[in-house]
Each structure stands twice: as C-alpha cells, then as structure tokens.
Design goal:
The complex is a heterodimer of chains A (379) and B (80).
Chain A lengths: L13 E6 L8 H16 L5 E4 L7 E6 L15 E5 L10 E4 L4 E2 L5 E2 H13 L22 E4 H11 L7 H5 L2 E3 L21 E5 L2 E6 L2 E5 L6 E5 H4 L9 E5 L4 E6 L2 E6 L2 E2 L5 E2 L14 E5 L4 E6 L2 E6 L4 E2 L4 E2 H4 L9 E5 L2 E6 L2 E6 L4 E7 L7
Parallel strand pairs in A: 1-2, 1-3, 3-5, 6-7
Antiparallel strand pairs in A: 4-5, 8-9, 10-11, 11-12, 12-13, 14-15, 15-16, 16-17, 16-18, 19-20, 20-21, 21-22, 21-23, 24-25, 25-26, 26-27
Chain B lengths: L4 H19 L16 H12 L10 H6 L4 E2 L7
The chains are: A alpha+beta (379), B mainly alpha (80).
Chain lengths: 379, 80
Amino acid sequence: FSTFAGELKWTKQVLTYRIVNYTPDLHPANVNAAIKKALSVWSRVTPLRFIKKDRGDADIMISFAARGHNDFIPFDGPGGSLAYAYAPGKDFGGDAHFDEDETWTKSTEGTNLFYVAAHEFGHSLGLSHSKDPNALMYPVYRKFDPSVLLHQDDITGIQYLYGPSSNTNNDQRESTEIKNPTESKDLELPNSCSSNLTFDAVTTFRGEIMFFKGTHIWRKHPAVRTADFELVSSFWPRLPPGVDAAYEIPEKDEMVIFKGNEFWVVRGDTILPGYPQKLYTLGFSKDVTKTDTAFHNGIEGKTYYFIADKFWSYDKRSQSMDRKSLVIRDAFPGINGKIDAVFQHGNFLYFFSGRKQFEFDLDKKRVTRFLKTNLWFPC
Amino acid sequence: FPANTRQTKEEGMQLIQKYLENYYGFKKDGEPFVWKSNNAMTQKLKEIQKFFGLEVTGKLDSGTLDLVQKHRCGFPDIAG
C-alpha cells in the first residue's frame, strides 16, 4: 500500500458525504446504496463513520461529470480514466469524481459503481495506489468480483492511518479479505417491514423521527416517504449499541439518550462534555437502575420516565422529580404494562409495546388508534 | 498487406506519452517525441513497468502497451 506525501488523513472519525448529482445510468436508490456500501467497506475495518448529507457542504462531495468539469483533471471519454478522488483535506479534499462517459452498473457488466467507489474512497481517506494486483487500491480496474473486497494490503494501509475498528472481532483481524458486508450472515439487519418489528427507543430529532434498534437507527422525516438506515456509531461513536430510551428537548436543541443507569446529552452528532452521567443525578432514587423509555412534553415543561408499569415525571418549572412513581394506566388510560418506546408527535403520543403501537390523544386523554409498529415506514 | 507498423508505433507512443503525463508526472519537454535510450521517457517507462511488476526494459513492449489501454483510476501512480 502507499499513502500520500505527508500521510494526509482526516483528524476526525465521523465524516460527512453528499452525493451532489446522480448518473442517469442507475436508479438514484441504487447509487445511494452503492455509495453507502462502498463507504462501509472502510468503516468496517476502522473507527471511521460516515453520515450522509443531502444539502450544503460535506467532507466527501461525490459527483458525476464528463470531460472538463471545473477542476484541473478533465476526464477522457469512455474507458481510460474511470474516476478519481482527492486526498483528505478541506475544500475539494476527499471529493470523488466519476466519469459520466462510463456506463455505471450495479453488476459485473460495464463499470461497477460500488467497486470503483470503494477504490476512490480509499483515496478520499488517505491511501494512494497499491502495487499489489489483488488489492482494491491497485490502479487498474479488474473484472468486479462481488465476493471479495478488501485485501490484507488495503486493511494494513487504512489501519496504518486510522487504527482498527473498535468493534472488529477476531476473525476479521486475522482474515486476509473482508467479505461483502451486505452478504455476510452475521450482519442480520433489522427489517423495518417485519411484522415482528420492535424498537429500543423512538424520539423526534431536529424535525425527524429516530427509531433506535440495536446498533442501527432509522431516520424518518415526516415529509419524506423513505427512511435512512444508519449505524448509531456513525453519529455517536462512543455510544454503546442498544439504547434504552431517548428524548429530545427541542428548545435546547439537545437529545438525551439512556443506556442502563447512565445517560448522555448530545447536540447534533456531538456528545456534550461531562457525559455519561448516572441516572440518579436526574432526581431518581438510587435504587432506580434503568429506564424503559421517556419523552419530553415541551408544552407542559415536563419529562416522563417509564419503568415497568409505572412512571416518574420531572417538572422543569419547579425543577423537581415526582417524590414517588405513579401507575401508567392511571395517567394514560389504555396504556398498560411495560413500554418499549414512546414519542410525542403533535398533540399525540405514540406508545410502542412489543409489536403494538398505541396512538394516545393528549387532549382527550385516551387511546385513539391501535397501529402496527412499522406504520412510519413505506411498507 | 503488412500492418502499418509505423502508424501503430506512433499511436502506441502517443498512448504511452499520455499515460505517463496523466499518471507518472511526465512533463513533455517540447523536444520532438523521439526515442533515445536513457532519456526521461525511457526512465518513466521503467517506472511504469516497475510499478506494475512488468519486465523493466524501458521499451514500449506489448505487455506495457496492453497495460496502458486498460481502464483505471484517474489518480496518478506517481504524483507529479
């Protein structure tokens, strides 16, 4: 492997990327998937995480263009040079340009976008070309083999720059090649349309709704049909997977995330300093060791914490936590037993319990609809 | 008819020169494109052959000509 002069690399672990325009050769969803998978090739073997942005600037700007395109390396028409990317840095540093004169495909025919993108993102992260003809970073495009991606040479190179992934298990450390992540069985990803779908936590977040499940989250904007599926660690690398509860305090642009008897406060993708803190610092008695779920009612100025079939509420005005817990069904008629997740959307609360979802009208003080958990996804 | 080796040779030279300029930081120094031993071109050609594990002859042999026609990444192998 080789790095760039000065061993250029990113000094942060969470990088943003934006697909500035799309090739007409593929459906946009296939381009999104190819780019995301190409980035996951590198995030699986390093602490790096990638967050997709749909507008504004991003560390890695991805674009398709033919011939001359406002930088000093014009493309050369079909064949020859397929794409290139800049070494890490500001402005066009990290950006990846793809030659629109190629025929971009998601198969072994033509020029496979995922395969070329995985190579180019190696440059975006700081690797130059490798002399190893088996390495992904070898400069010449070979027949795309979907089963094998990173060779040991690539892994050694990228880990020379960024170190190993915090969650790499042993067999990957020894293995010489990383299988195609979306094909490996051990990555059984949760299916948002499964009738058995349950959630660890649900919360609003800057106008979106975030559904936490294991190591992943679905991000859903009410005005957008599809949901983005991301790794929790791509937002907050230090957060443990499988959170218990989360709620947003919009007026402070903060989100509070709970796991066990600790909680973190985040603003965007930044964990605020001084966290995690212990649960009792919120005013719970010390025998309270975890919360099932929680939501913040900005209108009331109250935050509700649910544990088993009871709840506590914290009043922001009096800055005090209830002295003792109350039974959930007394305050929320029709909501019985343990709650997995709850969030407020408009004047309704949505309670998730196992595979069931209850819509609760805060004015009428009763359950108004009984829904499937995946109501929010385009199933 | 015998192949027009002169034209093919010229095309091959243009191809290799373009490749060297794009990926090996070769700067044409204005002199007519001639083939003298040990000139910059020969040195650069040896760099390609060395990088790709080909026989390092400094000559535009068929293996090298075949390589420079393959699709590849547009980023240089040797930064100019």
